[in-house]
Predict the structure.
Amino acid sequence: MKKRSEAWRAIWEKKYASRLPADPSQPDARQEPHVRDGFDSLSLGQWKKLAGYFLPKIAVGSGDDVLEVGCGAGAFLGLLPPCSSIAGVDFSENAILRAKSELSGDFRVSGAASLPFADKSFDVVMSWSVFFYFDSLEYAKEALDEMVRVLRRGGRIFVGDVNDLSKKALALKLRDKSGAERRNRWVTGGRSADHLYYPKEFFREYAKTRMMSVRFFDEDVEELVFYENSRFRYSLVMKRT
């Protein structure tokens, strides 16, 4: 049976292949960044409102070096306030080609558990709408280990849009209603493209072992009512002392 991550890689490579940099006169080249990154159900205003809800919680400063793990085409990075530098990794080569064409930064093809950067390279390491693509909690821990490795003392890790295990039944019901799973199976030729779900205790225990603080943000709030996935997701910030 194919791994979850392999099924999703096939989906995103195919999606980004149709969204690669093209002649500026072509319609695809004028797509909004959030559409290229799969948030096509949201208007530009809704996308900015969604990102704007979390940006203050990440608190990127003007002197910060920032890395996004699973950056896609760079839609989220593109909304950051001014900072010292940005970098991104993604397992899709096509996504990285798009990110390089849109943003000025260090973008590389890489998995989340083998980041191609030196220890203590960044002040902020973030991962938005990515952790549910991982194959297992064990892999998620490996990815967190890498995020901590490249994080400087006093730095912050933001993990956004995490599927809440306690709300899995609701998530499956909503995804079935939207037809998302059926569409993804068509793209992958029938291979499974499901999601991974996390108990909050997973992150609490991880932060404890690393002597980091952790703060959770449930996304099921009035400000995000337009974003249906918020009904079963949460985000978190871990800080390294």
User: Anything to note?
Assistant: The radius of gyration is 17 Å. The chain has a mean pLDDT of 87. Helices lie at 4-17, 33-36, 44-58, 93-102, 137-149, 168-178, 180-187, 200-209.
